[in-house]
Amino acid sequence: MSYDEYKMDIPEGEVGEWSVSRFVVDEEDASIGQIQAMFSGHGRYVPAGTYTWLRRNGEVVMSDTPNEIRDHLSFIHQAHGRVLIHGLGLGMCVEACLRKDTVEHVTVVENSPEVIELVGSHLKEKHGDRLEIIEGDAFTWPIPKGTRWDVAWHDIWDDLCTDNLEEMTRLHRRFGSRVGWQGSWGRDFLRDIRRRERRSVRGWG
User: Fold this and answer.
1) Which of 11, 37, 63, 88 makes an SS bond possible with 45, Cβ 3.0 to 4.6 Å?
2) Alpha-carbon span 53 to 55, nearest angstrom
3) For residues 186 and 66, what is the distance between their CA atoms, to the nearest angstrom?
4) Lowest-confidence range among 43-52, 95-104, 125-134, 138-147?
5) DSSP letter, residue 12
6) Spatial CA neighbour of 149 closest among 117, 122, 181, 118
7) Cβ–Cβ < 8 Å for 41, 74
8) Are strands 149-154 and 103-110 parallel, antiparallel or unpaired?
9) Domain assignments of the chain as residue spans, ordered by start
10) Quick one: pLDDT band at residue 1, thresholds 50, 70, 90?
11) pTM for this model (two decimals)
């Protein structure tokens, strides 16, 4: 499949500690990355091309590289009706959802006003009333009484770590009665790591 349809056109810019910019991976860099991925066993190399990333204090939080796009495809394929997203990031999930005729409306909850200014303002201009962006915390923002969503996606973490599993469980419980389907970024992957860690501790190999 082609991942080009998921690439973002967010304008480059900087607000506070956050920035959006383009970066280029040339053929040589891609070849080196592929070799490293083969030896590491992770398979998360970046093909040659031009990409966009969101950084905080110079550290990458999200990009529109193929490996990151794949992390969200299970959610994108599920998206329909009314959708709730925790964490705006580059807005890739928002864009992918709103391109689908089966998606009526997307609500995004993002705790960083800088990210909302950098990314959210651009998306609101494009999508208008089909998109609602709320500045708030996924764990504490007041859910409007009687509100339900068909699909929810929780993506508030900067990187994948098994420590995230507890917060994922909290969010799934908080919104369990409010959504038809919900998922969290990397949850299955982290659960698998946790199971292997426990087997190792027990001496099961």
Assistant:
1) 37
2) 6
3) 15
4) 43-52
5) P
6) 181
7) no
8) unpaired
9) 11-63, 66-190
10) low
11) 0.89
